[in-house]
Amino acid sequence: MTISLIQKYNVPGPRYTSYPTVPYWEEEGFTNDIWKQTFIKSFQESNQKEGISLYIHLPFCESLCTFCGCHKRITKRHDVEHPYIEAVLKEWQLYCELFPEKPIIKEIHLGGGTPTFFSTENLTCLINGILSKAEIASEHEFSFEGHPNNTTRDHLQTLFDLGFRRVSFGVQDYSEKVQKAIHRIQPFHNVAKVTFWAREIGYTSISHDLVFGLPFQGIENIIDTIEKTKSLSPDRLAFYSYAHVPWIKGNGQRGFRDEDVPKDDEKRKLYEIGKNLLAKKGYHEIGMDHFALKKDSMYTAFEEGNLHRNFMGYTASKTQLMIGLGASSISDSWYSFAQNEKSIEDYYARLEQNELPVFKGHLLSEEDLIIRRHILNIMCQFATSWDENDLYFQELPKVIEELREMENDGLLVIQDNAIIVTEKGKPFVRNICMAFDLRLQRKAPQTQLFSMTV
Ligand SMILES: C=Cc1c2[nH]c(c1C)Cc1[nH]c(c(CCC(=O)O)c1C)Cc1[nH]c(c(C)c1CCC(=O)O)Cc1[nH]c(c(C)c1C=C)C2
Ligand SMILES: C[C@H]1O[C@@H](n2cnc3c(N)ncnc32)[C@H](O)[C@@H]1O
Ligand code: SF4
Questions:
Q1: Which CATH class is domain 1-20+366-454?
Q2: What does 240-290 look like in DSSP terms, one character per residue?
Q3: Would you say the CB of residue 288 lies under 6 angstroms from ligand 3?
Q4: Pairing of strands 330-332, 290-292
Q5: Does the beta carbon of 312 sit less than 6 angstroms from any atom of ligand 2?
Q6: Global pTM?
Q7: Which UniProt keywords apply (predicted)?
Q8: Interface pTM (ipTM) of the complex?
Q9: Residue 390 φ then ψ, to 5°
């Protein structure tokens, strides 16, 4: 990779977990009624055919990792668990009253924060409470995020008995220096232990989350982390680019200096080295920052063009409707997005009023719906196409002109009715999506909103 390409294209840019991206939602005019109408329409169109997905946000962590960009609340008090589960079940009750028929659940993902902060009793109460009002789709996928430092064998067994077959563990990096800087001491044997247990119990997809570009992380740390990871043979891997966004209120990214964080070419090199080491062990790059072995369903989904991307990243199965439960969760009805109150107190207060705790959202325009499909195609298939009747929009010729320079740089190929991202262009998918992002172009951010694309 040449230095100039990275310097040229490393700009702040969205990670495109949605289009429009959250800072570009038109909050004005969005109401709870619009949210209700659109999710009910989506439910009617899709529940029987494919079922619905649930994302449940469990925000508590015992200790703050100072690299983390997720919505979390740090506490050691476990008496927060029960009221939180009660609130999520109340929220689910409000949704079930609005659904015209019994929901069929295709996917559940427990994210966080730290789902394994919760006791097995409370997790059982949560899942049973959810399922008591629903049917389960025949080919359902239940998954959760486990923290290697507090996931017990009992957590894994209990969730397995409730139907969970996928788990992802937060690993990040194995070197002591990096772990100290990100305030996350996590020895290899903790990860090895939970990985073995999960396999023994029968989980069919075990994933590890790694991050490159962390403070003080050098090439030798990446090599060591990848080698250790390979020795445990997870089925999937996320290899995320560290998103340094210390300006986001309350996210707690602190304790190291901006200079301690590898940037530009140095950062990209960490990725390239990691990627090559993974390729040697049969891990294929799937979309942005994800890798899978050929036997994993994410690989098949990628090969068959069925990969989908949403707020959690990539998924192998897609439903039109995804309801996000819990504080700060985002729901997606395909026609609209809605986000719940971010603070736990505000989330509780809204539920006490018997209201869906949505505080902002966006109703997608015709143009948004088309651009969203192009962005999904690029992020999930490294290519997109159109014709006069499908996926065409007025500004498309302008977008194509915009992409010429990237074509000259060898990042993509422009055909009559399609663009195809080249191998060289894969690190720059976010930049390619930005050419389609008309909302970003019409109103450039006044302050930095997004992490750097490389
Ligand atoms: C498990 C933690 C979460 C990860 N993503 C989300 C959670 C709860 C959900 C989420 N991620 C982002 C948004 C904002 C919506 C958007 O702009 O599309 C939401 C609701 C994007 C995002 N994720 C991270 C950052 C810093 C941002 C915003 C700024 C940006 O786009 O750069 C950090 C981060 N969180 C997760 C990952 C994997 C990750 C960075 C690689 C997981
Ligand atoms: C859910 C997963 O998200 C990743 N994650 C959390 N915060 C960040 C960030 N700022 N940058 C990159 N990855 C992050 C971690 O790898 C975690 O395990
Ligand atoms: S990385 Fe996981 S455990 Fe650490 S603060 Fe973020 S959500 Fe909590």
A1: mainly alpha
A2: EEP---TTSTT----SS-GGGS--HHHHHHHHHHHHHHHHHTTPEEETTTE
A3: no
A4: unpaired
A5: no
A6: 0.96
A7: 4Fe-4S, Cytoplasm, Iron, Iron-sulfur, Metal-binding, Oxidoreductase, Porphyrin biosynthesis, S-adenosyl-L-methionine
A8: 0.92
A9: -135, 130
